Amino acid sequence: MPVQIHRDLLAAIRDGRLPGGVRLPSSRSAAEGLGVSRSTVNTAYDLLRAEGVLTIRPGTAPEVIAPQVLNARERPATPPALSHRGRNLALNPRASSYAADSGIMHPGAPAESLFPADEWAQALRRAARHRHGELANYDTAFGHPALRRILAERLATDRGIRADPEQILITTGTQASLALTAQVMTDAGETVAMEDPGFMGARAAFLGAGLEIAPVPVDEHGLKPDHVPGGARLIYVTPSNQYPLGYRLSLPRRLALLDRAQAQNALVIEDDYDSEFLWRGREIAALAAHGESGGVVYLGTAAKVLMPALRIGWMVVPAALVGPMRAAHRNLGLMANLHAQLALAEMMRSGRYRAHLRRIARAYEARGNALAASLGQIEGIEVHPPDGGVQLTVRFPDGRDETPALSALAEAGFRPARLSAYCLAEPLNGLIVGFADATQERIERFVEVLGKAVG
Question: Are strands 313-316 and 168-171 parallel, antiparallel or unpaired?
């Protein structure tokens, strides 16, 4: 109660409703009028005196002191202007992607119902009970050694990447890793080449760094290396499962891309997007696995296997960049939660992470195939069974407007994305549809609504 009285009186004083020189009721009168104790009013008055807006003298009523602020009518009508960097950072490329703020079958989102809650809680509890000494402070902001060690082992086994744990940085996710790389490796006005269509998060990170984005076309073999402009300082690619079209970068193009990057002294950013969920064809080693990998920064995350909100990602950086990347990582405040790092390390070390991954991969494959098969019943669209990932693309080959379909699906509770919003050069029309949470009932309803919208 004293805080509420203090807050209300302070607001009245600051906005001029109680001008300087006005006498407030005595604590006794105010207490009787408000129906509270006198000590409550005295406490509120003492707080106002401490704020410098009230004078209290024995035997006299408290007097308001006018605060030294502009009158509300004299205050500037507009807020301070954003800097050029601030405008870039505040851009939201995703704004035109969706017709709803929330909904099911959202692309890029794993199924929360498949999250291993009990196993995670047990690992997290064990991590929280330990004393961590210096590791609990700021000296290892770039990641706990236990997680970096197990990641080095897993990357060598699963992706063919031979990296020292010292080359691994733990971040708060792929978005943070992209922003860190762009900020450290480029200056505003320089060029980054990225897939077109391409990942919105990458576009946001590059725009935030003030970069010029050069779109590089994609076909069924992935990004076309011969279309990468000569002046590009960075080349962003999702070779395992191109987002959003779902293609896999072929081995000849992988090698051609690395040759081109080396020839023009560009750094390749390999976002190993959805590499955990590949169901068809032979798995190809990561770009960072070829040669010395001195020209590749590799990005990974636990977002799809566990949950995006856990905020755990990792980077493998060339040895020459470890020092500056660690320093910038600390300066930008990208430190991931210590206990979450240790819980993830324990799950990976024990084999529970891999077992969980196998379970959800089977579920996602079945859901993706079921969705593709059902969508194939609709005339006038193009859809192919996904080779991996947690989303697929529905193409409108006649170039029809996506808005009616998006609006109808949003009204039915679905949240697919607009494919054309992901394009920088030649637009492709269609939808990006998530299937991680796609039950049979949801699939049937989705197909029914979309069929009517495009029919």
Answer: antiparallel
